[in-house]
Amino acid sequence: xxxxxxxxxxxxxxxxxxxxxxxxxxxxxxxxxxxxxxxxxxxxxxxxxxxxxxxxxxxxxxxxxxxxxxxxxxxxxxxxxxxxxxxxxxxxxxxxxxxxxxxxxxxxxxxxxxxxxxxxxxxxxxxxxxxxxxxxxxxxxxxxxxxxxxxxxxxxxxxxxxxxxxxxxxxxxxxxxxxxxxxxxxxxxxxxxxxxxxxxxxxxxxxxxxxxxxxxxxxxxxxxxxxxxxxxxxxxxxxxxxxxxxxxxxxxxxxxxxxxxxxxxxxxxxxxxxxxxxxxxxxxxxxxxxxxxxxxxxxxxxxxxxxxxxxxxxxxxxxxxxxxxxxxxxxx
Length: 332
What we know:
By secondary structure, the protein is mainly α. It has 3 domains: 1-142, Serine Threonine Protein Phosphatase 5, Tetratricopeptide repeat (Alpha Horseshoe); 148-243, Methane Monooxygenase Hydroxylase, Chain G, domain 1, CATH 1.20.58; 291-332, no CATH class. The protein is built from 13 helices and 6 strands.
């Protein structure tokens, strides 16, 4: 099992390079969708998965070969398919085509079949009998977190998990690095692998009944295969992110306006006579012997030319108001 996965990149490359190879691929896929292969769900699962891969890449080179007979095989599988995993994958694939590839003319027959079958499915789901069947199955037959599913379903779940992991491994190897993070198929395989890993862990730890030794070993091996594929995806993702240049830092914006200073809020003090650009502050009042004070002079008064008597003489000064010298005490 799984040897056919090794040929997946080769099949994709051949279908992309050769229209003849693309037509042959469509023919082989149609063969395995036939009723006689319903007893081999793994082959049908691979066929549906390959249908989706080739419809995305190479695209129209492949889908132009999906004629009415191909659509009839798909219709049979939708209506009479016995394996729930195969049927679920087929429904998801058709939904993917309907949502993302409506412009592909090669898918017109498949889309016509799907739209009719979708209406039938939706009408069936609205009937009360359907809800009664779902309720009964949920309460009696569906597996819980502590019970194993029926053997046939368990085998299908294990097979689907292993195939999803191997396909993820192969698609990672055949996809250019710069396309990995945006590849929808890789995203889907990653989602399937994570869900399958959770299911395998639940099956391993269930106790009603517990898995036999052979089944337990198969579950553990399957979980290891899934973890290896997911680890490769995470390593690839981290490598891509580390190789991308870091975004440039945004330059810091300078303030567009200067702060407004309130002139009335300045701290007054003695003027800095050594600094010709200093703001001439109002000088403090003079303190005379005996505790008398002289009122501070305004700048206007200080600007007048005055005369100072210095022991009998007077001098002109632009800095102080008129004063009279009496002994050692200068008074007005």
